[in-house]
TrEMBL record:
This is Indole-3-glycerol phosphate synthase. It comes from Natronorubrum bangense JCM 10635. It catalyses: 1-(2-carboxyphenylamino)-1-deoxy-D-ribulose 5-phosphate + H(+) = (1S,2R)-1-C-(indol-3-yl)glycerol 3-phosphate + CO2 + H2O. It comes from the Archaea. One of its GO terms (molecular function) is phosphoribosylanthranilate isomerase activity. Belongs to the TrpC family. It is an enzyme of class 4 (lyase).
Amino acid sequence: MNSETELAPAVASILEAARERAGDVDAQLAVDAQSLPDAIAGAEADGRVPVIAEVKPTSPTADGTRDDDPVELAQAMVDGGATAISVLTEPSHFGGSPEALTRVREAVDVPVLRKDFVVREDQLDVVKSDLLLLIVRFVDDLEALITATRERGFQPLVEVHDRAELETALEAGADIIGVNNRDLGRLEVDLETFESVAPHVPDDVTLIAESGISSPADVRRMREAGADALLVGSAIMDHSGGDSDVTENTRQLVDAGDGDD
């Protein structure tokens, strides 16, 4: 893991809370996961841009919170064409919960990602999901945690920010990799981050662009740079008055491949 002194204060606080959060030492989960690569292939066969739409009540970089039912939000996203759903389960800074993820996964027929800040094996056994986020910068023994994740049936989505972290992920055996365009040191977003890392990702790796994707033009830019799928939260959740807006926001992104803004 890289030096914590480089982390933005908000991110350092998230990491500290993650280290203190208890997992489950009594029972190891066994998950029958839906395949994200298969879902991506299905979306592309249907002519849709593969979008992982994120249910996010709040975040350190957002203003205010959303009190909507996470199940209704997720269903609205799927109605808009989302290939998969990401659900925040981090409680302290994002207002998420494992219970919300369970309810969402029971209600939708697409893969569901647990987005949290997992740093130890016992924290894997909190809730069932199809995918589980592992952030290279936060994990000390990535290979061991990837192995433990797969032993339970999860698909690990391994998040990187630069080429050095990409090499760490590849050496640890990651085959689904997300490139976060947000710098965890300054919390600034730059789509060139993905463009600089993507050329070095092997073709057999499922590659996801994360953060800062806010328009159809951004979608096309990331796809042209090699993204197999896009993880989008704020552009779908923000500035929406209800489920119909969430559906329409999602649809505009999944239809972005037609070239219309």
